[in-house]
Amino acid sequence: MDAERTAGVRAALDRVEREREQVVAKRRAVQRFERRVRKLAAQSERPPAGTARATACGAASVPAATRRDDAAGAERRRVRELFAETIRPHSVSDVNESEPLAVTIREEFGPEVATALSPEAGSRFTPAVKEAVVSAATSRQRGLDGMRRALDAEERSLRAALASLDECEDWLLRADETPLSGLGFDALRQRHETLADHREACDRVVRERQRHLNGATHHTAAVEVDHRFLATYLYEDRATDYPVLTAATRMDGLCADCQRAVRDHLVRRV
């Protein structure tokens, strides 16, 4: 027997497990980022016009916002630093690659938050900016939770298919130990029927897998992960995007070949 028939499904399970570990680690990183941003102080929307200072000619009004804006600018820089420390290592394959930090922020949190945190957007770290960042981090965690649930569903689908295919392959291995020439008519007929059952099981694997791929995991009303899109993403660098369907088709083909051989022997026994 050729173990390659189900090797793709086993490789898919390994891929799912690695992706789930990355998703869980990223979710923790986003959570750490959110908690640390919540501790940062936000400045009021409207800075004070100025304060009075004694001069040789009397009292004069001087800007008091400069020192506050410098502090606010430091808070915004700190948000970008926190993102680089916590989330970026889980967002890019190489933290030393040339992708600008602003691009990574936009990919994770969207263009509005990326613009709000941009150094060119101004220096004040207002409550509105802080709330936008915290809200984006919370939403990202929900998205990652949905991804994890979709990966769990993918694992269940793969394991269910593998159980059926392994059962078929185990039977074929045992049956192969007895040559067809050593079987009587009734035994040959029973083997033909058993092969038909296994072919039906392969067909059922295909139907159930297609049903899974046509569905989606709903984490919340706003978070949905399409299973077919997920499978394409997970297995795009593999020999096939559809490891279960490929394995089931191969197993069904083997059973069909075995059935033909059994029928040839049955005809000769009549």
Automatic annotation (TrEMBL):
- Cite the DUF7260 domain residue spans from the record: 9-259
Q: Which domain of life is it from?
A: Archaea
Q: What is this protein called?
A: DUF7260 domain-containing protein
Q: Pfam family example for this protein? A: DUF7260
Could you read off the lineage of the organism from its UniProt record?
Archaea, Methanobacteriati, Methanobacteriota, Stenosarchaea group, Halobacteria
